[in-house]
Amino acid sequence: MKQEKVTAEEVNKILAASRGEYVEGISDPTDPKWITEDLALTAQQIDDRSPLNEEATSNVQMEEAVSDEEQAGNEVQSGESSLETGEESHTGQQADVNQNTDSVAQNSDSVNQTEPVSAQTEPETQSDEPAVVYPAYFEPGRYEGLPNEVYHAANGISSTQVKDARVSLMYFNARHVEKTITKERSPVLDMGNLVHGLALQPEQLDEEFSVEPAIPEGAFTTTATIRAFIDDYNAGLPAQLSADDIKALLEEYNATLPAQVPLGGSVEETGQSYMSLPEEYQRIEADQKQTAAAMKACIKEYNATLPAQVKTSGSRDALLEQLAIINPDLVAQEAQKPQPLKVSGTKADLIQTVKSVNPDAVFADELLDAWRENPQGKVLVTRQQLSTALAIQKALLQHPTAGMLLQHPSRAVEVSYFGFDDETGLEVRVRPDLEIDLDGVRIGADLKTISMWNIKQEGLRAKLHREIIDRDYHLSAAMYCETAALDQFFWIFVNKDENYHWIAIIEASAELLELGMLEYRKSMRAIATGFDTSEWPAPITADYTDELNDFDLRRLEALRTQA
Prior knowledge:
Elements: H1 8-18, H2 39-47, H3 53-60, H4 68-72, H5 80-84, E1 89-90, H6 101-114, E2 141-143, H7 148-152, H8 159-167, H9 169-177, H10 191-200, H11 205-208, E3 209-211, H12 223-235, H13 243-256, H14 267-275, H15 292-304, H16 316-326, H17 328-336, H18 347-357, H19 364-373, E4 379-381, H20 383-398, H21 400-406, E5 412-413, E6 416-420, E7 427-430, E8 434-438, E9 441-450, H22 460-470, H23 473-484, E10 488-495, E11 503-507, H24 510-533, H25 550-562
Parallel strand pairs: 3-4, 9-10
Antiparallel strand pairs: 1-9, 2-6, 5-8, 6-7, 8-9, 10-11
Helix pairs in contact: 2-6, 3-6, 8-9, 8-24, 10-20, 12-18, 13-16, 14-15, 16-17, 23-24
């Protein structure tokens, strides 16, 4: 039987009392524990209050050796809409779960009792336990800790699928029956998904998201930092002989050698050079004519006996080769000196140059490239995006109502419900973001990120209402309440625009839930008819004449009067 509806003010009082605050009419003034109440103890007391704990959950939980803590902390994904529709809402809307209200209500107590205050998972830790095997078919019931991929591939019509049917049965058929329309999940970050994970299941963030690595101090970040290292390294090396230094040594050596006898430019000069030769090289007989050619031949013969001069022009390496002829020891010493690093080339070349002398060097480019490769297929989050998401998380947790809902000790997050629609008999599943049991009153909530930085304050409530209606949030809420036996439903809207993170807590009124339920019923009947007849009509099936609306009619009349 449904609990009597409580007001938002009463809910706030109950939440405050459950957090250890004194509330007139609820807290016991004679009980000294109300001031120093331990939230963990409170959660344990809630867990112990029903004898249905083990019995009720055993009927709906999977047969697996997984602790309650592991089940409660096994998800990171935001709700249904974030995976199945790409909406910016982050609710558990994609689950379609219609089940027997009595059995759900009974199971809900038991699962709330097993919800731990803190659920930590360490996926890196090796365990001897066998891998969890999930059933191919989920019987009606309440399931905690289902991974996103398991839930979204499970049997049952989700609220997002119902919304697709409201687009048209043709679209529903193509998307969910024939599957000719597919929507791949983009690796591009959806800020709503990140906020959802930080607010609801921060301990599981690493399972879905890969955060940009922090660049350690001392890492090479730019070409300039790499070049500066190379310059510093080269400056610390022993000085090497420059080309000018080598040339000076070669010229000094050449200066010690006997000068070559010039051949002369005329017969007279050649004759003078010939007469300066040692007597043994003056080979022209006295009775022979001293021709220029004969004298030059003698001069050349003499010059050939003199030590050859080394070359003093060319590159540094060429000069070193000449120096090796006259001073091999000096050249050997020069070769033992560490060679300076190259300072030219591409950035990749310079990186390899630095690694040749500092193999442990860390380069920002390499860290970021390895992160972008993303072999595990996670959603990449930059440091700036994470900073924004953490600011939104802080705003949520500091908000008096949102903070109490998100951190309530008896909360359960991303719980999956499977069941049947009473009217059509179709299988359904739902997955609210958050559920809390407050003294028998079951409260559900969905976390939504929005961008309304430019909406005037006076029109903000109307805009939020339009957001709820246009995105069929009220339909999802009604489906949640029906299938998960929730008594009240709230939306936690948070604005995601940079440094403008205001929050709105909105309760779904009875009339809004009724509207959502009637639209849900209508859509389920249409889906059932489609399955029965295999007919999936397009959104427009008849020809029609386009008529002016009221605004255009007024414009028409105004223009007629001016004509």
